[in-house]
Structure formats: structure tokens, C-alpha cells
Amino acid sequence: MLGIESWFRDSISNDDAFELPGGLFLESSVPVSFVKVISSKSSGGYVGVSRARGCLSKPGGKFLSISLSNKGSESEGYFQEESGGVVVENGKSSKEVEKKKGKLQGAVGAMNTTKHLWAGAVAAMVSRTFVAPLERLKLEYIVRGEQKNIFDLIKTIAATQGLKGFWKGNFVNILRTAPFKAVNFYAYDTYRKQLLQISGNEETTNFERFLAGAAAGITATIMCLPMDTIRTKMVAPGGEALGGVIGTFQHMVQTEGFFSLYKGLGPSIISMAPSGAVFYGVYDILKAAYLQSPEGRKRIQNMNQQGKELSALDQMELGTVKTLLYGAIAGACAEAATYPFEVVRRQLQMQVQATKLSAMATCGKIVQKGGVPALYTGLVPSLLQVLPSAAISYFVYEFMKIVLKVE
């Protein structure tokens, strides 16, 4: 031990500036004088401790990770030994240092969550605005019970409301879908990672993908259903007289109570659970299958080799075409599997308190009135809307995660 102390004294007495990064494992028997040598003054100048990473007190010894410099007044910090035998950094104990690191990690995590949510929100804004005319046609069939063919309906809307009529209610739709998709995408990625940690597998199983998708759909539905109910009320007959989003909200709460905003929650959850499971599950299965294929592995290898030289588009694991294609397939599968629930949910949202029916009664009434095909009314325009919407949504989401550097 004396030899090491002598070496430190000889080193710091040298006139030439030096820097010693590294770590030292210190035995319990290390004398206090050795620790003091590190932060003492000498003829060569003050020995500062820079980039200090702290000290851990362990049974049987301590670990000290430091960088030493004898650059005089440029010293950045020091270590000292307290009476309790714990080395502290710049007067702060190791517990305080760990607490500071914990706060920093929490801030980084919150920032990453915010960026993740924004990626999903932007994806919803872009995709919904792009397919708003098709969404309007779908609502005309479901809510108003329109019987015209799709081409006649397009002519009618254009003649009576002009081009902007096809984007009627789009702002409210964005207010609804932006937070919905943000929560949906984020919840799915979060649940999937949690299930992966619980299972301890190297890769998510198909069951875990479907389960995470279902849980994400339920979470987003509970949080965002009121805005969807308001939008449906606005585009229904007489909705124009309610006075926009705020007016419709006030009217529903005053006449039917606050929980009227959650009309159709049951069928919404029943609809969104399988919809989320299929949407995210199918996309993830297709993505995993491609990445494990020879073509996918070669693409990832090339991406790793080129590194930062790649643009955001080139950094997408599936590439542009496959991201759009797999997103469209996932969306079509989810829509076809759950469309009857969507029809029942819209009809429930249209009912007033006095004549309100249960979900089963509403479904029976729809079938009695138009047969089983009535549960699929508007499916064609809905699929025409879902295919580009899902494709664009996934594409923009994957792109924004790269641009925002979501971890």
C-alpha cells in the first residue's frame, strides 16, 4: 500500500500535466491517508478529480472510478472520506448521486414517452386527413342509413356541400383519432415489451402480440371514446344545430348526463379488443417473418454497415413499400373481423336516453330490419378507407419514430 502512495506522490509532484482515467478497487483495509493523497495539494499543483462517477460501498471493499488531473485551478471536484467510511463526491454521498441519476433517467424516459406519443398522433393526423372523404361516405351509410350507390352518394355530397363537404367533421375526427392512435401505438409497444420481460423470451410470441394489441385497443377506447361519441352526434341528422364540439358536448351532458359520452362502451371494447389484436398482431407477424428471412437479414446488415449515412426513409426496417403493404393488410384484416361491432356501436351512439336499447337488442333490431348483411352495411367504402389509412398510419408512425429518435 505504501508503494502505491509513494507512486501517487511522485506522480503529482511532476510539473507536466497529466490525466489518469480509470477505476480502483479499494480493500476495506485501505488507510484514509491514501484517499486523502488523491485530493491533496502538492508542489506540482492541486490534483483535481474530473468526470467523477462516484464510489460504491460494498462488503469487503470500495470501488472508486475517477480521472485525475494536476492542472492546477482547473480541478473539477474531489473525493473525501466521511467518518462513516463512505467516500463522497464533491460533498455528495453515493445515495445523493444515485438519486440525481434517477431523476435524470426519469426525465429522459418522460421525453421518450412524449416523442412516442407524438409519433402516433402525427400518424393519425396525416392518415385521417388523407382518407377523410372515404370516412365521410362510411358514416353516411352507417349513421344516416344511406341506400344510394357510392357514386350517386359522391355526386349528392359534392352538389349539396361542395368539395369541403367530404372533409366535414375531419377536425373533430383528428381530435379523436390523434390521441387515440397515440395512446394505441404507445400502449401496444409498452404492453408488448412488458410481456416480453415477464416471459423472459428472446422474441415476442404471436400470442403475446395479440394480447398486447387487445389490451392497447381497450386502453385507447376507454380514454378516447367521448370524442368519438361527440363526432358521431355531430354528423347525425340535426347535428349541425348543436353548435360544434363544445355545443354538442354541453347538449349531451345537460340532456343525457355525463356518462352519455360513453354510449356504446361495451361494444366498443368488444370491438377494439379483437381489432387491436388483429391489427397489431398481423403487422408484427408479417414484419418478424420478413426480418428473419434472408432478404430481411441482408437489409438489416446493409443498414448497420451504412449507419448514419442513411436517410430516415432508408432507416425503416421494412422499407417504404413493405411498410405500406403490411399496414394495409393488417388494417383490412382488423376491419373485416370487427366491422359488425362498429355498426352496432354507431347505432348505440345515435340513441337517446328515452328509447335506449342494449347492445344485444340493438344488434337484433339491425338484423331484423335488414338481415345479417345489414351488419356489414358500408363495409366496401370502409375497406376503401381502411386500406390507405392503415398503410399511411403505420408508415408515418415508423417514419416519425426514426425522425424523433424514439428509443
Automatic annotation (TrEMBL):
Protein name in the entry: Mitochondrial adenine nucleotide transporter BTL3
Family per record: Belongs to the mitochondrial carrier (TC 2.A.29) family.
Source species of the chain: Kingdonia uniflora
Extent of the Solcar repeats: 111-194, 204-289, 318-403
Cellular compartments annotated: Mitochondrion inner membrane
Pfam families the UniProt entry points to: Mito_carr
Key words of the record: Membrane, Mitochondrion, Mitochondrion inner membrane, Repeat, Transmembrane, Transmembrane helix, Transport
Biological process terms in GO annotation: transmembrane transport
InterPro entries found in the cross-reference section: MCP (IPR002067), MCP_dom_sf (IPR023395), MCP_transmembrane (IPR018108)
Function field: Probable mitochondrial adenylate carrier that catalyzes the transport of ATP, ADP and AMP.
Lipid bilayer topology: Multi-pass membrane protein
PANTHER family per the UniProt record, alphabetical: SOLUTE CARRIER FAMILY 25 (PTHR24089)
GO cellular component, one term: mitochondrial inner membrane
